[in-house]
């Protein structure tokens, strides 16, 4: 009668009660009046940097058809504040906490990873290697296989926490960076960060983003992300976390069929603060309608005849 | 703070660029204060994915009717314009820090330009209950855009309207007018919204006359809640200039903290 | 009183009366009841191949949020039919005809270019180097700088017609392929072809495109195309033809501000067969409202302070 | 062929999955023929960017009222369902090649399944004027889905309804029924739409009985005009199997050319 489908999935050593987690940068404690955090598969707070950063100049976001462009610039209070305030804030929830870390150099990533490894409440690390960095002329680490490999290898040496590499979609062959991350020791891959994009206000002729370019997210990018997830799933058996354009339970199912084991929800949170809970319910409905017992059985199960 | 689906009671043009909308917020238990805003889903078309912030224009505590005054600017407000009474409005709020008043019962000065008057009107409407009087300078490009002047008067405010069209709205003229009002009415606090130049002028006057002063700021928003840092703008703090979130740390800030260049 | 703004632009040797032309594959003679072809800046028929090709299996298109995915597979009757029927069909219009050519090998491109060079009515050649080819494991020529350079260099040797290279957007650094095309002898660049994408029907679990993946076009891709046009415009002075997501005159202005000299309209034709004429009118309205005499003055004029 | 903005006269449910819509096409000079279709913009939401093709269900030459019968399938038809009388429908048409009849005045057999009946109904409606009679086999999953049976009868057709629910729609049963009808009524031509299995059956019967036979085919469309080759499907031609455009070379094809495996 009250049979409920099994939504649990495994990402490396992490057991998630369902595949839904927030995308880094789109989620925080201020959402607690709208959503019971205990119902989520995991919690991913905003990316943290070693030192305090004030972020980019405004406008930091603009709306485009079917999505938005952001260039927040990882405004952050630094790792001390993070370990003293952010982690304890989330510690009360019975949900694995995945810390997203970001840095301008490989060393910064390693220092952050080392510091967070000492903290029990941190269940895993997501490496945001897909945002522009200072060292390499504005090019993200994740746009180059060698750098990706070196970065993950370095971080791998200082931590035994599950390492999730968040890949950049702005590449010719994502398979190459995916394999570079795998060889470097990543335990899972997030596919992917935002797409580099730009918009111009035709009335003022000024860029709509203060920082000129930014990352494109929202429903418009989903067909690109489905393709990227599928391509990555074909070359590696690492678990994949889909990220980009998930607005409904159906979008999540599509990502899972393409090869994702879990899915991050970002832009949808801005439209509807309770979006993640609705999505979890829609997944369960879909499973019941299709008589699917375990969501894990659907991973990569696109029917190619 | 709640995600409400509130019935639209009316939605009608004020002039050819501005509209007024009223919604029923009986589902809301908490109070709604001047300076706060609601984050509104203007349509479910994916051309307008993000919510838009609109200030409380008027709030009736008894009937729990909430009004907005809005400028038709782009696709979001164009969609809002098309909503009919009886339809439901998806909104989150009340959000943000409200205005505050210094102790005492001295009159306050409001200086608004354009649709900035929407935010200050809520304050004008609230002060009589505190036994105080609001004096408002309302500036606009054209006489037709002199918004809310009648509403302000009805709320008991003394209104001085100036326009570019009449050549009465230069900073020089407004400065002199404000100086006069500050002295004549024994103003203890200034509130401004809608124009950087006007805010700068008020910042100076507030320093000179040692007045309590606040500004309501604007920024493009994503979450509206304080989570995403989309709306962060520079504000002068003790330690120097910091990027603070307009949605949750503002939109109301001490005017002296505003970075206006 | 009846002053009309000057919409003319130059693409290499081609003088266009306005910047609007159809995107290859989305336009043909069947649109003539809806649109006066003489009002267009140029005409670009569907890509032609050397031999007859039957195209890909269906479904060849699917709709996605804010756009569509297509995988037509360049169904084509071959070059003979093209020179005997398609070119004469368009010859009656007083508009430069740009022939889009496509091939599986560099030689095929060269043979096609040579054959078309003999035909006066062909004003220019657009090289569709951005569709997957057989030689290189499904990778488009335009995804590799060396191949791009070699292809254009080879074609350049057999023709003096203006050569327009249609770049692939599915690359890490479009600047590299743009420069490779320039060095190979291209006279102009189309930025860009469609984005590799995929969609899955969650009810049947089957891919929505018979050929699994296809090219994503429509309003959703505009923020990516604006960024690509801007990036290409920064590194080369070759004229750029924007292609991707132009639905309105405002979209075209945005592309021009980013650096485009002309703009191709594709998906919009399916929504509104007269879309290109409406767009031309909207451009003129914009220019009058902003007191702009010549559209050419706006090219690359984004205001970066 | 025109891009029309036609007034919607009515738009109402037939049952819980099917709707009927009528539009005024007085702006159209040319004739509208059975088998042709219109390419319709279901909404201006960018979730439904592409037009959708719908067959002529009914056309009144005198009043120039055109009707569609449509199945609520996905987002496009869900949006179509919301259109109100008095609103304008953006549609391109008439498009495609219509059905044709062999010479003579012998009766014709229609074999439709599901919403395929929409296309064949137009033919049933047209034949009495040619002094001929239409015999229709209408197949559906459930009795509730037996569409257009009353409309067909009103148009003078003799209707045989079969359903999965009643266990009367197996290919075996329908084959026997069709054989009987072909003989009893001296059928000279067969028309089919809506099911591959049904089409295969009719293809066989047409070969055996040497009947003229046509099929109305479906494919996802972009332009609908013949320019983009989105709709191309395999068809058996003299030279072998070719990919032809359903929108402009079809949707009606000789049944023997259909590739049904
Ligand atoms: C705290 C606050 C209170 C406000 N109160 C009011 C009010 O009471 N009445 C009123 O008319 N306007 C008010 N605004 C401005 C209002 O939010 C914008 O005019 C509105 O978002 C424009 O949306 P649009 O789609 O019509 O315009 P577009 O220009 O098409 O909007 C495009 C995008 O930019 C954003 N945007 C554009 N202008 C602004 C702006 N000034 N502030 C923030 N985001 C913007 C939109 O939200 C949208 O995401 C307020 C803004 C803030 C920050
Ligand atoms: C020539 C022709 C005549 C038709 N006549 C009728 C009719 O009279 N009544 C009726 O109910 N249906 C008819 N159809 C099918 C109708 O076009 C689809 O049911 C409709 O497009 C579904 O749109 P949707 O957005 O509701 O569904 P979705 O499944 O959400 O559509 C998604 C996309 O797939 C396309 N698509 C989905 N199914 C079909 C299909 N069967 N054929 C073509 N494209 C499809 C849609 O156009 C859209 O682009 C006809 C199809 C063709 C080709
Ligand atoms: C406002 C905003 C801020 C973001 N900040 C971060 C960040 O700090 N670190 C990160 O790895 N990704 C960040 N992202 C990317 C998201 O985590 C996510 O990968 C992306 O938005 C795609 O998912 P969506 O389409 O569901 O939004 C941000 C996205 C947005 C919209
Ligand atoms: C149905 C379809 C067919 C296409 N065929 C071709 C083609 O044959 N050759 C080519 O170079 N580009 C082809 N394209 C790409 C378009 O020319 C254009 O670059 C792309 O659609 C982006 O523009 P849009 O967003 O305005 O549609 C095709 C696009 C579509 C939608
Ligand atoms: S809008 Fe998200 S923090 Fe202010
Ligand atoms: S839909 Fe374009 S050719 Fe048929």
Describe this structure in words.
The complex is a heterotetramer, with two copies of chain A (305 residues) and two copies of chain B (261 residues). With 305 residues, chain A is α/β, with parallel strands linked by helices. Chain A has a single domain (9-298), classed as TIM Barrel, CATH 3.20.20.70. Helices cover 30% and strands 17% of the residues of chain A. Chain A has a seven-stranded parallel beta sheet. In chain A, β4 and β5 (67-70) form a beta hairpin. The longest helix of chain A is centred in the C-terminal third of the chain and has 15 residues, at 275-289. The mean pLDDT of chain A is 94. Chain B is an alpha/beta fold and 261 residues long. Chain B folds into three domains: 2-95, Translation factors (Elongation Factor Tu (Ef-tu), domain 3); 99-216, Nucleotide-binding domain of ferredoxin-NADP reductase (FNR) module (Rossmann fold, 3-Layer(aba) Sandwich); 219-261, Ribbon (Dihydroorotate dehydrogenase B (pyrk subunit), domain 3), CATH 2.10.240. Chain B is 20% helix and 34% strand. Chain B is built from five helices and 15 strands. Chain B has helices at residues 75-81, 117-126, 149-154, 171-185, 196-209, and strands at 2-13, 18-24, 37-40, 52-55, 58-60, 65-71, 88-95, 108-113, 134-140, 158-163, 189-193, 212-216, 232-237, 240-245, 252-254. In chain B, the strands form three sheets. Chain B has a seven-stranded antiparallel beta sheet with strand order 4-3-7-1-2-6-5. Chain B has a six-stranded mixed beta sheet with strand order 10-9-8-11-12-15, sandwiched between helices. A two-stranded antiparallel ribbon of chain B has the order 13-14. In chain B, α4 runs parallel beside α5 (196-209). The radius of gyration of chain B is 18 Å and the shape is globular. Classes of the chains: A alpha/beta (305), B alpha/beta (261). Chains A and C meet through β10, α5 and α6 of A and β10, α5 and α6 of C. The structure holds flavin-adenine dinucleotide (2 copies), flavin mononucleotide (FMN) (2 copies) and FE2/S2 (inorganic) cluster (2 copies). Chains A, C: Residues 7-287 form the Dihydroorotate dehydrogenase catalytic domain.
């Amino acid at each position: 009668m009250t049979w409920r489908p099994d939504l649990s999935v495994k990402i490396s050593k992490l057991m998630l009660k369902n595949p839904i987690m927030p995308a880094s940068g789109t989620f925080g404690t201020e959402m607690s009046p709208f959503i019971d955090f205990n119902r989520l598969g995991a919690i991913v707070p905003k990316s943290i940097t070693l030192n305090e950063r004030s972020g980019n100049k405004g406008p930091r976001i603009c709306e485009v058809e079917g999505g938005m462009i952001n260039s927040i610039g990882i405004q952050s209070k630094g790792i001390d504040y993070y370990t003293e305030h952010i982690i304890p804030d989330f510690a009360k929830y019975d949900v694995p906490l995945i810390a997203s870390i970001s840095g301008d150099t490989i060393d910064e990533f390693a220092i952050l990873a080392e510091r967070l490894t000492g903290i029990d409440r941190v269940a895993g690390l997501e490496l945001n290697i897909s945002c522009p960095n200072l060292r390499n002329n504005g090019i993200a680490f994740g746009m180059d296989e060698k750098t990706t490999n070196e970065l993950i290898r370095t971080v791998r040496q200082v931590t035994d926490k599950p390492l999730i590499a968040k890949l950049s979609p702005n590449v010719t062959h994502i398979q190459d960076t995916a394999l570079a991350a795998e060889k470097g020791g990543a335990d899972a891959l997030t596919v992917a960060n935002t797409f580099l994009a730009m918009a111009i206000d035709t009335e003022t002729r000024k860029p709509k983003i203060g920082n000129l370019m930014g990352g494109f997210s929202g429903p418009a990018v989903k067909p690109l992300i489905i393709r990227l997830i599928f391509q990555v799933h074909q070359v590696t058996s690492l678990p994949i976390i889909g990220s980009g354009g998930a607005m409904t339970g159906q979008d999540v199912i599509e990502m899972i069929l393409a090869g994702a084991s879990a899915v991050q929800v970002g832009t949808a949170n801005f439209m509807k603060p309770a979006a993640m809970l609705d999505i979890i319910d829609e997944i369960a409905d879909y499973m019941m309608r299709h008589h699917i017992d375990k969501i894990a059985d659907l991973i990569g199960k696109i029917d190619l005849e | 703070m709640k995600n409400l689906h509130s019935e639209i009671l009316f939605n009608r043009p004020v002039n050819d660029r501005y509209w007024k909308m009223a919604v029923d917020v009986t589902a809301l238990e908490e109070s709604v204060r001047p300076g706060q805003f609601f984050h509104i889903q203007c349509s479910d078309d994916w051309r307008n994915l993000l919510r838009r912030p609109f200030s409380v224009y008027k709030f009736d505590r008894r009937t729990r009717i909430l009004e907005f005054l809005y400028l038709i600017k782009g696709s979001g407000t164009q969609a809002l314009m098309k909503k009919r009474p009886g339809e439901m409005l998806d909104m989150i709020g009340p959000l943000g820090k409200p205005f505050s008043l210094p102790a005492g019962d001295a009159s306050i000065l409001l200086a608004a330009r354009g649709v900035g008057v929407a935010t200050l009107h809520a304050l004008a409407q609230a002060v009589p209950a505190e036994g105080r009087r609001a004096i408002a300078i309302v500036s606009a490009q054209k006489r037709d855009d002199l918004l809310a002047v009648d509403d302000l008067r009805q709320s008991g405010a003394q209104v001085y309207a100036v326009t570019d069209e009449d050549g009465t709205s230069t900073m020089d003229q407004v400065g002199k007018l404000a100086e006069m009002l500050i002295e004549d009415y024994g103003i203890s606090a200034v509130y401004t919204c809608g124009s950087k130049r006007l805010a700068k002028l008020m910042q100076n006057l507030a320093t000179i006359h040692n007045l309590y002063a606040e500004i309501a700021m604007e920024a493009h928003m994503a979450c509206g809640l304080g989570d995403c840092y989309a709306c962060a703008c520079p504000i002068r703090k003790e330690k120097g200039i910091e990027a603070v979130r307009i949605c949750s740390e503002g939109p109301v800030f001490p005017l002296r903290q505003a970075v206006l260049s």
